[in-house]
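Fold this sequence, please.
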Amino acid sequence: MTSTTHLLLAGTFSCLLMPLTACGASPTGSPSAAPSSPSALPRGSEPAELDPSEFTATSDHPYFPLEPGRQWTYRELDESGSEVTVVVTVSSETRTIANGVEASVVRDSVTEDGALIEDTLDWYAQDADGNVWYLGEDTAEFEDGELTTRAGSFEAGVDGALPGIIMPADPTVGMSYRQEYYRGEAEDNGEVLAVGQQSDVPVGHFDDVVVTADTITIEPDVLEFKLYAPGVGMVAALGISGGGGREELVSTRQVTDEIARAAGTAPLGAPYM
């Protein structure tokens, strides 16, 4: 195991950069029973031919559940100490992506001091093997209430954009995969660093945590570790290189049907809660 795998988040990352076994967990245990072939996971600009009939818009993956109405709230601190709030809501809406796959619409809204600074609709779907795919996003950034950019938006099957994996069916140490690919705009990658870990964040303590390393091909200095807990999803993230901060789950809840519907239908920049 390389030095980049020496991570365990406990509290506010109090175990950071300690050996994984120091907190009483195995770096190589498998968190799930269903096997997934690493060779089947796309990398770089490799084509991916997806059969829409083999996908569902919702996800029952324990490490990336997408139940309509599920909502997570995160506190994010950048390297300067500035704090933002990130609210992620699984809407009850779906979208048929250009490659034919019907995807769940997930809203990701970022506010600073109560003001919206970024609003995104992400599209995910789960294949028959259990892998959760990322199929694109419609994103917008705001300043003083005004739209400043839509850069970063892409859709798998449009203008050469390709889908990627956000969570393998059976996360296994050493697995590497493309998360998204839109040449020169979105070229993100993931790798499973460890399984069977622990994490303490404001919302509680979690066992059997999966740790991944996220990188960006077109921004080679960027490295971020993310922690996923079973039955919850992402519970923490830490920027290791490239100017990232840290993010922790502070609450999770089930929203009303009305909010779940609005999360997928309200225009970017418009309130939905």
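The CA atoms of residues 133 and 165 lie 4 Å apart. The helical segments are 257-265.
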